[in-house]
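Minutes, project check-in
Item: structure for the 518-residue chain
Input as provided by the requester:
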Amino acid sequence: MSALQLARFLHGMTAHETDVRLDDAALRATLGHAALRVPRALSPGARIAAAAHALAHWLHSPSGEPVDTLTPIGTAVAGLIEDARVEALLAREWPGLATFWAPAFAPIEREGLTFGCLCARLAKALFDPSYRDGNPWVDKGVQLFDEKRDALDDYRAFRTIASRLANDLGQMRVRFEPDDGAWLRYRDDNSWLWAQPAAAAERAGHEGIEMSAATGGHGDDHDDEPPPAPDAPRYPEWNCHTQRERRDWTTIVERAPATSAPPPSLAALIDADRRAAKRMPAARASELLRRVGRQLDGDALDVDAAVAARIARRAGHAPDPRVFRRRVPHDARGPVLILLDLSASTAAHVAALEKRAAFVLGDLFDRQQRRWAVHGYTSDGRHRVYYARFKDFGEAFDAGRRAALLAADAGMSTRTGAALRHALALLRREAAGTRGAVLMIGDGEAADIDVFDPRYLVEDARHAARGGRQRGVSIAGLSFGAPPGLSTILGVGPGCVHAANGDALPAVVAHAAGRLTA
């Protein structure tokens, strides 16, 4: 297939003259407006495939799109999705053209987790409806693409899909690699799509940049950090697939979080919350009460005791008359640990609500003369579960500690199970025979860069909470943001309080604290 024949092919399809040349040195096809350069090394069939692919771009792709806001990985994924979109549009009009593209996809197999392998697998899955890959990222890309197949002309909708997939790769810490065309040789380098050359992508690849969702897709330089200390705390992790714990699977790294100046409005909101909390007589009256069962009188029926009494009566025994529940004074002196989720998913709004809640809780526990601490966590893979102690047991919540909590940034991921196990271990040292409690505050999401199954870390956190409760620790949750929040981990019931926003925050916080003794 000569350059002249390719030009005639394109002329027959478009009725426009096209400058087509075969290039001895080129590794990838390149195109401009009515100009196409094809590597001479391509087979005749691949040359036709390249010309047809260029035609798809000319007919259906916008050219010169701004690339300033895109990371190299974002640019590459956007190009991949655009390639699939325009080929689908062209094949819808001329189905026979797909036969020229099909041979390029045959060698691609379900293996390899590098950037190039994942992109090639997704490209094949988007081209061949019968192909089932099984990789969660690839399958997600297919699902998102298929949901929009009836709207292939909507370029912006598919750019949104590309952004979501690129962000997922960032969370997975997939290292960016420039596309050298080794997988799909007939496709061009996509430089025609963008207003600027994609040289930045090549630089990023040589520098070994890893994309990070925690930093919004910027480079992550955690490899420059020292490794965790040999004596760093290590904890198991529950594998829900094998129903077994992975021994010493996660590592806790205690360090202060990244900080930035808090918005001036946050301190004012906290002051207002604290003043409102002090004016809540109902909350103060219920702070030191707990509900107990098997009482001679009370304000509610103890169902378990009533059933036992009925069984005893039917068996001919004297029933126990203590079948009521009532609230009695409770010495709430056991230590309580407030555990804050400081991951990127909490964003600025939820993180601010968490900090406001921590201040109100601190005042509440001080009034109860109860020992308390406030800690926070994020993660960056199983070997880096970062844990910060803003205020520890026995320490004063002084100006310095308050400022550290206010300035803490939200970022990175959420390995909740590991953080909860560490919190429980610290609490056991403090409890000394009293019943301790953990109050978890966050949005309830559990995710990390090295975990692809969305269920895995939720089940692990659930397992950690169950273990703590079995050892006598009271664990409750206060979640902000979209439901279901922490109920996915702690279960639906009185032990978990959910608030969509900061409305009536002092009352919500007092209610959540009451769950620790109910």
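Outcome recorded: The two ends are 80 Å apart (CA to CA).
No further action items on this chain.
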